[in-house]
Amino acid sequence: xxxxxxxxxxxxxPTGSLHIGGARTAxxxxxxxxxxxxxxxxxxxxxxxxxxxxxxxxxxLDGLRWLGIDWDEGPGRDGGHGPYFQMQRLDLYRAAAExxxxxxxxxxxxxxxxxxxxxxxxQKAAKSSWIGYDGHCRTLAAxxxxxxxxxxxxxxxxxxxxxxxxxxxxxxxxxxVEVNTxxxxxxxxxxxxxxxxxxxxxxxxxxxxxxxxxxxxEEHFLNGIKQRLLFEALGAECPVYxxxxxxxxxxxxxxxxxxxxxxxxxxxxxxxxPPEAVFNYIALLGWGFSGDRxxxxxxxxxxxxxxxxxxxxGAKFDPAKLHWMCGEYIRRWPPAECLDRARPWLGTVPAxxxxxxxxxxxxxxxxxxxxxxxxxELAPKLGWLFADPAPDEAARRNLAKDPASRQWLAAWAEAxxxxxxxxxxxxxxxxxxxxxxxxxxKDAPEPACAFATPARIEADCRAFVERLGVKFGSFVHPVRAxxxxxxxxxxxxxxVFLLGKDACVRxxxxxxxxx
Length: 515
Ligand code: GLU
Prior knowledge:
Glutamyl-tRNA Synthetase, domain 2, Arc Repressor Mutant, subunit A, binds glutamic acid
């Protein structure tokens, strides 16, 4: 037998935003298609017209693009198996329905909504172990049908399930599973208005689009049984199925939109999560790259991905690990890239800093790359570079701890005033920045510079503190508080180097005067 080219699809309904679960399903199909050298399709299941919206559709497309999940066929990319919107395929469903009616695999059902509701209530009241359609119209004689039609009753089309047949399936993730068709009722395929229901449209399209593998959430497992029988009825081969386990919250329950840290994919984008990190984290929800590595690129995932390697157990969503992952990516970027990518969140940084002080700004950003996990966290950390900060709670404590510290601050202000510290923003720092790369590390060689470098600032400071006769640790806390308004941040000598002479002297004097 000639094996067909692998073709996989993601088939979202545009009734809400793209969430983590949907993104994972899309990603696993995408990765499997790429790994198998096949095609990845995007099909829009928009038959729920009351709930489908253009905004949801755009959100899903944008979310997939943002994650780097590209499709070979689908909206905007015709691959000869379209249209890729179900509402544009109604004639295909009608034609398939006619075939199934003719072969007896489908029958019209004239039951009213009232009757179906009453039946349901009855089954519930009787605590019936089985709730579903009772097959009332399954055996209607031709004359009865004709009579219903004459009275203008409109029929749903139902699929005639084989009675008590054991269906054996092999699922790539769940293994061998048996289901008795007794557990499933005759389900509605097509409504009177010609709009298909999910299982029916899905199979007609999987056939028409030559889908070979279906990877989707395990909530569709029983649908897979119904679909398999429909493939048979239509004389088509059923794709290989892989039903992936649920994503769980920290308590082990099904993940919900209300769980902490759960957002739509585009909300992660808007809050400054790097897309590679979100991609990487989602990939790990049920699949592992290797025993000792969690951080990998899209290409590495594609090279390693196998559907069969997806775990059977539900994966736990851990917002802390997602944040950690974001930090891992951010710290690996060159500072210039970090600055460019953080730009949308840096509205509070003066525009000139990006042009006249670009190297200085990159150096400043570099000092924070190991300290942030989201790009949006950068702006509030950079404020002290541009304006004298009001000390926060911790800084105020550090300034108040030792009454003698005011004298040290005043004395160091004068020492710095007489030093060769670099100029302060917005003065011209062009002679400084390119040479000294921050964050400065003690073991890194420091090039000669026309101004004091972090290494020399440290040496001078230590000598100064020794002359004062105070403990170095006691000295640096109030100094940091005076210069940055906080007790956190990059190394103190990076701070002094970045701030430059005028700003350091002004802030130390102000703190010494208790302003
Ligand atoms: N529209 C369905 C869903 O979003 C697709 C399921 C499938 O992949 O067959 O759940």
